[in-house]
Amino acid sequence: MHYKDLDVESFVDHWYKKETYLKAYSKFIQPMTNMKMWPKSTKPSIEPPEITSMPGRPRKKRSKYSDEPCKKKFGKATRKGRKMKCSLCKNFGHNKKGCPIGISFALTSSTLLMKFIFINTS
């Protein structure tokens, strides 16, 4: 368009121009009154549609109301309140993975095990 010396604005639709925008929003929108001030209708109020069952297998669990308390799951023990006990040093407060002496104990036990296997095979 620039090479042919054409006016770019002639290709823009009139809906995107400033004059059309100002013309569309020039009218003042009147505010609505409160719902209590609306005129009463003689027609019946709109009711929600009837509840019909959906096709297919029904849902396994029902939906609980917001004020209904949650049911406790029995039969499953929680780990809350239990203290960890290390299986290597038998101290509380950590497990086998975080044991401070576990690394040295694991190295010595694996070397002893390797020596035991080597002696038994030869």
Notes on the protein architecture:
The protein has a domain at 97-122. The model has no long low-confidence stretch (mean pLDDT 78). The protein is mostly helical and 122 residues long. Helix content is 22%, strand content 0%. It has helices at 18-24, 102-121.
Write down the Rg: 40 Å
How far apart the termini lie comes to 92 Å
> Main beta sheet, described?
none
| SS content category | mainly alpha
Helix content: 10-25%
Q: Mean pLDDT across all residues, rounded?
A: 78
Helical run tally: 2
- Name the helix and strand elements from N-terminus to C-terminus, one letter apiece: HH
Beta-sheet strand percentage?
under 5%
Shape category: flat
- Unreliable segments of 5+ consecutive residues: none
Q: How many β-strands, per DSSP?
A: 0
Topology (SSEs and partners):
Layout: H1 18-24, H2 102-121
Q: What is the structure about, briefly put?
A:
It is built from two helices and no strands.
Short descriptors:
122 residues, mainly alpha, 2 helices, 22% helix, 0% strand
